[in-house]
Amino acid sequence: MLSILLLTQTLSGSYPVVALPSDRNQPITIQSDKALRDEKTGLTVYAGNVKITQGTLLITADNISLLNNERGLYKVVAKGKPARYRQRPALDKPMIEAEGNTIEYHADTQVLHLIENASLNQDGTVMQGSKINYDIQKQLVTASGDTGNGKTTQTETAKQIVIVIPPNTIASPAAKNTEENNQEFEPTSSVPIKEKAD
User: Fold this and answer.
1) What span, in angstroms and rounded, lies between the C-alpha atoms of 145 and 160?
2) What pLDDT was estimated at residue 110?
3) Whether residue 99 has pLDDT greater than 80
4) How many other β-carbons are positioned within 10 Å of the β-carbon of residue 51?
5) d(CA 115, CA 127)
6) Are residues 142 and 151 in contact, defined by beta-carbon separation less than 8 angstroms?
7) What's the pLDDT tens digit per position in 152-194?
8) In CATH, what is the architecture of 2-184?
9) Burial of residue 118 (number of CB atoms within 10 Å: 0-12, 13-18, 19+)
10) CA 194 – CA 179 distance, rounded (Å)
11) Strand boundaries in 136-195, DSSP class E
12) What is the SS3 assignment for 106?
């Protein structure tokens, strides 16, 4: 297995920024069976059991391509069955876990594309579809299914997007506050009611 510790300017300046601020200050470690670097085109390809780590960031895939230009890294393409991505966006946030047969990260727009057999898990809510786009800056997720002719039959249901929301996240904070407030105002003792004498 080939293990490479990259501290080069081509990667460290503009690697995925969905991360904790501390992640960006961590070294990037790339492990793979093979590596190819084309200095003329700015393309680096890692193949065979590829694993990229940087702080809480973990990407695993069969192969990963890093594309660089004069400004640094602008695109990462990970392919696998599936390729996987995991990272903690902030200290008070749970891990984001994503997978797809292809994962593309565009550094200029800070958008993560999950393509074919895509899934995204955020705080227990799981979204699945043919394609999922995650805009990191806007924290916006869009998904699409693939029903071919646009008509959905029972056999094509698997091609639609599927969202699974755990029950503990369905109640809104306002509803929870109302329940708590109602409990606070329940009477703790009873006052006898005097009956009017005839």
Assistant:
1) 4
2) 84
3) yes
4) 17
5) 13
6) no
7) 445 545 578 888 888 876 655 555 555 555 444 444 444 444 4
8) Sandwich (2.60)
9) buried
10) 32
11) 140-144, 162-164
12) strand
